[in-house]
Amino acid sequence: MPDLRDAFDELEKIYAQPPALPCVSCGTCCVTPHLTLVEFAYQLDSLLTLLSPEEISALMDAPMPEAEHLPGNYLCKLQNAENKCLSHPGRSLSCRLEGLPLMDLLANRITPICPHITDQDVASDVTAELISQWQDRLSALNAGFHTVMEEPYWLESLNLECWWAVALDPKITQPFFLQIRQHLADTFDLSLFAPHYVDTTDLSRKLNLIDAFFAANEQKNPDKAFKLIRQVMHDFPRTGTYYRREAQEYFKLMKQIIKSRGK
Ligand code: SF4
Ligand code: SF4
Which strand (E) or helix (H) includes residue 207? Predict the structure, then answer.
């Protein structure tokens, strides 16, 4: 099995691309971030390097505060009481892009606009195309470990809480995710994290509904499939946007189902 750490050199090259930003650590944008598998591994590596076993226990046991400014989301588990990131060197690309004024223009953004950094603060030639290229490089890197953006799960990235679930939730039994869990277990000793895991996302139930949706589709039961896909899309706010383009793929399927019902 490939070791997730083998991807870290290329990941660090991608992380070196965004410009340094004059972030004042106000914490506004630090809701549970989205990241890819290799990035989650990098963050785990960072946590295991930076924190003591006692600090890891405390981190995992800490209650998840609601992001009041973004209903349905939690504040990031890795943000401390002074709004500092406990895993700053290991933070994901999405965290490294927060504060870039350009991010305000991106259509799929869910986090609030940075109230502190403006165009005048950032001498940057970063374009939307460049960000897209970095994200594509991330996807290519992850393709060494799992299929990216393919049925049935269209996995590209997950929020941090969902990754804990993939790594540690015994209720997740899909072979696709068990293989990813194996990659993580082969690379890291997760015994410091496992006893403290609490399900905060209900991801396992969402994955079961996705499986049921595809079964209903195969059985040519569009009414059931339609009901299931609505649940998948709307009933799991704690999974965040789930995958970067997932919603678009489900939307396409819903349109197909509506079309088939009309026949
Ligand atoms: S909102 Fe802006 S200033 Fe506040 S933590 Fe995020 S990037 Fe930094
Ligand atoms: S990982 Fe760090 S920078 Fe990213 S959202 Fe969490 S606290 Fe903020």
Answer: helix 203-218
Percent of the chain with pLDDT strictly greater than 90:
51
- Residue 234 CA to residue 30 CA, distance in Å, equals 23
Please choose from 24, 91, 111, 159 the residue to mutate so as to test ligand 2's pocket, defined by most ligand atoms within 8 A of CB.
Answer: 91
CA–CA separation, 44 and 67 (whole Å): 23
CB 148 within 8 A of CB 139: yes
Element (H, E) at 159: strand 158-159
Which ligand 1 atom sits closest to the C-alpha of 28? 1
Res. 113 pLDDT band, cuts 50 70 90: confident
In angstroms, the CA 244 to CA 204 distance is 19
**pLDDT tens string 186-240:** 999 999 999 999 999 999 999 999 999 999 988 988 889 889 988 888 888 888 7
Closest ligand 1 atom, residue 99 Cα: 7
What percentage of the chain has pLDDT greater than the value 70?
A: 92
pLDDT at residue 133, rounded to an integer: 92
Instruction: Tell me the CA–centroid distance for residue 225 and ligand 1, in Å.
Output: 41
Q: Hey, how many other C-beta atoms are within 10 angstroms of the C-beta on 144?
A: 15
Burial 69-84 (b: 16+ CB within 10 A, else e): ebeebbbbbbbeeeee
Is the Cβ–Cβ distance between 91 and 25 less than 8 Å? Answer: no
Can you give the residue ranges of every domain in the chain?
4-145
Amino acid at the residue 131: I
* Tokens at 245, concatenated: 């383009």
